């Protein structure tokens, strides 16, 4: 798996397993162990997903050293204060049964996000989290945050897939030195991208599935990408994307698929 260097020098595996909407402990544990077997070391959860405890147990069971894992969690919108954020972080650590996180994000730019950011900065300077960032922040939210921040966010994790490519946000984050992380990179398998004729054609040419073409496209755009699956075979499939490359022409063709269509 390839790594990306964040703006504070911390390395993050560019591909991770997203565990959104996997609330059944048994299903989650099977998925995490399948991912470990396939070579994933990066796992993306959140308080909202209610699976931090099961994820922590699965990672402990995997036998992989903590230093070889990269674990992200996020503080949810119902927390609106500095103290509440510190408490939420402590609760996440406890559930995961870990003494630090690799990345902690503000899940959405909702009430109190400047206070929440102050708490993340303090957790970071205390060494309890190796990098801090945001999720679902648009330009206006980043402008406000950066006007008050002591520490620049390391990442912005946002919805991105071939029908919602977000070129302006890409350019902005590049200028700001904030890594671009994509959630729902496959369009949640419900927006038709997995059946797209152009992507099918490109997949046939490389002897790869459409999901692999889409993940490869995200990687070549320099994004961190966290496809979710509960199926062992798909978890493996989604990671088997480092032995081929899309040509500049194919990347251009995929760019034309953008409909600026969020699923949110
Ligand atoms: P499942 O968990 O049943 O495998 P996203 O990451 O964009 O949110 O997409 C997640 C959705 O895509 C899930 O419904 C997941 O289903 C499905 N999915 C994940 N990987 C693949 C794949 N390789 N082929 C088809 N569907 C996939």
Model description:
- 42% of the residues lie in helices and 16% in strands.
- The chain has 264 residues and is an alpha/beta fold.
- It has an eight-stranded parallel beta sheet.
- Helix 2 (52-62) crosses helix 3 (82-96), helix 3 packs across helix 4 (113-125) and helix 7 (197-206) packs across helix 8 (210-220).
- The longest helix is centred in the middle third of the chain and has 15 residues, at 82-96.
- The protein is globular, with a radius of gyration of 18 Å.
- The mean pLDDT is 98.
- Adenosine-2'-5'-diphosphate binds at residues 18, 184-189, 194, 209, 211, 227-231, 234, 237-238.
Residues in β-strands, percent: 15-25%
Find the structural class using helix and strand composition: alpha/beta
Indicate the radius of gyration in whole angstroms.
18 Å
Mean pLDDT: 98
Instruction: Tell me the series of helices and strands, N- to C-terminal.
Output: EEEHEHEHEHEHEHEHHEHH
Largest sheet: 8 strands, parallel
Strand elements, count:
10
Strand order of the largest sheet: 3-4-5-6-7-8-9-10
Features:
264 residues, alpha/beta, 10 helices, eight-stranded parallel β-sheet, globular, binds adenosine-2'-5'-diphosphate, two-stranded antiparallel sheet
Short recap of the structure:
With 264 residues, the chain is α/β, with parallel strands linked by helices. The protein contains 10 helices and 10 strands.
């Amino acid at each position: 798996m390839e790594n990306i260097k964040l703006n504070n020098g911390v390395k993050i595996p560019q591909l991770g397993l997203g565990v959104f909407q996997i609330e059944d402990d048994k299903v989650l544990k099977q998925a995490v162990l399948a991912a470990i077997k396939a070579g994933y070391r990066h796992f993306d959860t959140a308080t909202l997903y209610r699976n931090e405890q099961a994820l922590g147990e699965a990672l402990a069971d995997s036998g992989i050293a903590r230093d070889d894992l990269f674990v992200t969690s996020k503080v949810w919108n119902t927390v609106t204060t500095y103290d509440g954020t510190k408490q939420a972080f402590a609760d996440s650590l406890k559930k995961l049964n870990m003494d630090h996180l690799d990345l902690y994000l503000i899940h959405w730019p909702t009430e109190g996000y400047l206070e929440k950011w102050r708490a993340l900065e303090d957790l970071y300077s205390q060494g309890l989290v190796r990098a801090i960032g945001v999720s679902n922040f648009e330009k206006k939210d980043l402008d406000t945050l950066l006007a008050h921040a002591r520490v620049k966010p390391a990442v912005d994790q946002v919805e991105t897939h071939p029908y919602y490519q977000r070129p302006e946000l890409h350019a902005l984050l590049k200028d700001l030195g904030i890594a671009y992380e994509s959630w729902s990179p496959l369009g949640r398998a419900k927006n038709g991208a997995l059946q797209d004729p152009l992507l099918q054609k490109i997949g046939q040419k490389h002897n790869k599935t459409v999901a692999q073409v889409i993940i490869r496209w995200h990687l070549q755009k320099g994004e961190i990408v966290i496809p979710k699956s509960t199926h062992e075979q798909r978890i493996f499939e989604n990671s088997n994307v480092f032995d081929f490359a899309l040509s500049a022409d194919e990347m251009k063709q995929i760019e034309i698929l953008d409909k600026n269509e969020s699923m949110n």
